[in-house]
Structure formats: structure tokens, C-alpha cells
Amino acid sequence: MRKKLQDKMFEASYLFEFLISLIVGVAILIFAVVLVIDIVKDIKAFDSVASLVKILDDAIILAIGAELIKMLCKHTPETVIEVLAFALARQLIVGHEKPWENLITVVAIAILFGIRRFLLKKHDMVETPDGLVDNKTLEEARSEDTECIKF
After folding, report:
1. What is the pLDDT of residue 48?
2. What does the mean pLDDT of the chain come to?
3. What is the DSSP string of 59-88?
4. According to the model, what pLDDT value does residue 114 have?
5. pLDDT of residue 112
6. What distances in angstroms separate CA 127 from CA 14, 65, 98, 130, 144, one per listed residue?
7. CA–centroid distance for 22 within its chain
8. Which of 31, 63, 88, 95 is buried most, with the most CB atoms less than 10 Å from its CB?
9. Residue 77 and residue 120 in contact, taking contact as beta carbons nearer than 8 Å
């Protein structure tokens, strides 16, 4: 009885994550269209560096949202690291921080890439509705409708 309840709660959490990723995906599409419309509508207004920074900020936020959807769908350590790297890159590119804060951000990105390169291996476990599955059998798990719809 308890195992069945746990399985149902796990499946419900996957459905909830799918709903969240769907909402975020729709919001990303809407804001991407708004960004393109703003650029086309006010093309003469984009004559300063501040305009470029605003466009970059909006575009990077949309990219972070897309990475968030991947993270909700795949449940792998690699996707978490990618989301963190995008968020740090946004701060580095768009933020006007002090030089030592930029240095800390660069070091944090280097640490993330080091973790990805040296600590994450193919045998890292991935969470699926059926439990933990080795990455080697992940393709089998994905064929059972455990992955979100790709946008």
C-alpha cells in the first residue's frame, strides 16, 4: 500500500513538473515574440549601448528559461550545471558588477565546468518514474514516455 502511494506521488510530481515546464515554455514563446516585436518596432531607438544590454538581458533570460525546461524534463546533473552556468554567464555579461565580483563569477563558471568534466561520469544516476536508472539504460527509460515534450 505504501509503495503504491509513493509511486503515485512520484508520478504526480512528474506531471506537476511537466505542467510547470509547459507554462514556462509558453511564457518563453510569448516573451520571445514580444522581444522580436520590440526590436522591429523601435529599430531606430536601438542606437545606444544600453539598448543592446537590454536586448542581451532579455535574450539570456529566455535562454535560461529554456535551460530550466530542460532541467525539469531530464533530471540529470548536467542540466543543473548548464542552468547554473547560464545564470552566472548572464550576471557576467549583463551585470555591471565590480571587477572582483566578475572574477568570482568567472571562477564559479570554471568550477562548474571542472565539475562537469571531472566529477560527472556516464554512470551517474538519473531519476525516472520507475526509480533510479543508470545513464546506460536511460534511453530505455526515455522510450517509456518519461521525458517531457521538446519545445
Report:
1. 73
2. 79
3. HHHHHHHHHHHHHHHH--HHHHHHHHHHHH
4. 92
5. 93
6. 10, 21, 39, 8, 13
7. 13
8. 88
9. yes
pLDDT digit string, tens, across residues 42-55: 776 667 777 777 88
**DSSP designation for 135:** G
Set of cell numbers at residue 63: 535562454
- What is the identity of the amino acid at 12? A
Q: How confident is the model at residue 22 (pLDDT cuts 50, 70, 90)?
A: very high
User: Which of 53, 54, 27, 120 is CA-nearest to residue 82?
Assistant: 120
Give the Å distances, CA to CA, from 26 to 10, 79, 100, 121, 151.
24, 20, 37, 33, 9
The single-letter code of the amino acid at 96 is H
Cα 25 to Cα 42: distance, rounded to the nearest angstrom: 26
